[in-house]
Amino acid sequence: MHLHMKPKESLQFYRKHCLPNYYPLYPPAEEMNVDYEQFQAYAQLPVTPDIFITPSELRYFIKDVIGCVCVNPGRLTKGQVGGTYGRLFIKRDASLEQGMEMRSPCAAAEVVKI
After folding, report:
1. Does the keyword Protein transport apply (predicted)?
2. Per-domain residue ranges for the chain?
């Protein structure tokens, strides 16, 4: 993700790229074997995760994107000073397990500055 994306563009990036393709990362680490011939058949996930945590250089945020709570806690440290981290409290509604409409879990989240 580009550091100079506008907030709306970064959320579109999450919706269109990160959520359907959140594993494996591209390019992968050198020690990770990825069969790119099978990548399209098996790496596209048909479900959206309930919670997606992606620390990055971008400004911290917590957003609901297509039913997924996306959390970017920012960096824990910034040079010699403290940065930010995320704190989550999640309570899943048991009635959602019975085939009801998918919604984001009940989540209380905050980004804490160090």
Report:
1. no
2. 7-113
> What six digits make up the tokens of 31?
């020690």
- Is it true that the peptide bond before 27 is cis, omega within 30 degrees of 0? yes
User: What integer pLDDT is reported at residue 2 of this predicted model?
Assistant: 45
Q: What is the mean pLDDT of the chain?
A: 74
pLDDT digits (tens, 9 = 90+) for 74-102: 888 888 888 899 999 887 766 655 556 65
Among residues 19, 8, 7, 114, the alpha carbon closest in space to that of 69 is found at 19
